[in-house]
Amino acid sequence: MPLVRKRKFEREEDGPGTQTVHIFHLPGHKADVKLSVFDGLEIHVHSVLLKLHSAFFRRFLDLHNKDGEGKNTGSFRYEWATVYDDDGSWSLFDARNIKSNNANSNWMPRKLRDTREAHELAFMNFIGTFYGKSWAIKNTEALQLVTELADYYCALPVVSKSIHGSLFLSPVFCKSIFFGPTRTLLDLSLQLRSPEIFRECMICLVGRWQHSAHQYWTESQPEMSYNPKLTSPKLNELAIKLHNQICAKVSKTQQ
């Protein structure tokens, strides 16, 4: 998702009656940023942490206020609201540059992947990593949503640091790795630089014994017995090598 795209500001047609407000605390600092995620969640955060952990906010938070003459947004120095792209994706945009007379301001995207609540929770967990908070990973889809946010807002390092602690809070997710979408998780582990998830995914991927592999595996032609066809040639080569090593050890014990 590119940083600069043509967007439309839209709200839900039948939005919730009340809005949930979540305030993140930082000793010695007052929250000076209001982030409105859809119409149901309002998050108060600190610009100093947004700029510290996100290259996106370092670049764009003060883009329209370089001379200190930007429009005041009430008690907050910055106020960002949700905008939607035509493909159904969403992001935050400086509210000072959103036109209030947009004719389509009461529409919601038709192609929003997953539920609105799932996106709100993902964004809460994403912002929480800026404050050193770990989070319970519900499933692969939840991890993917947070990873996409980290990628778009250029904050992968801080989210990556949270994964180790988050896995301890996610026993159900850890148990489900073997039965989940291994290839998707493998890609996420590479993006997040998570050795724990990468190791478990590789074990699941290359450790599954197949009768055809045992019957036709030969040391002289190992490539004929197993090929996961991963998108990364180097990773695919590593997977084949590890699988063949397992096959060789198992075959040796059965001789």
UniProtKB/TrEMBL annotation:
**Listed SUPFAM superfamilies:** POZ domain (SSF54695)
Q: Please report the stretch or stretches of sequence annotated as the BTB domain.
A: 31-61
Name of the molecule in the record: BTB domain-containing protein
Protein species of origin: Botryotinia fuckeliana (strain T4)
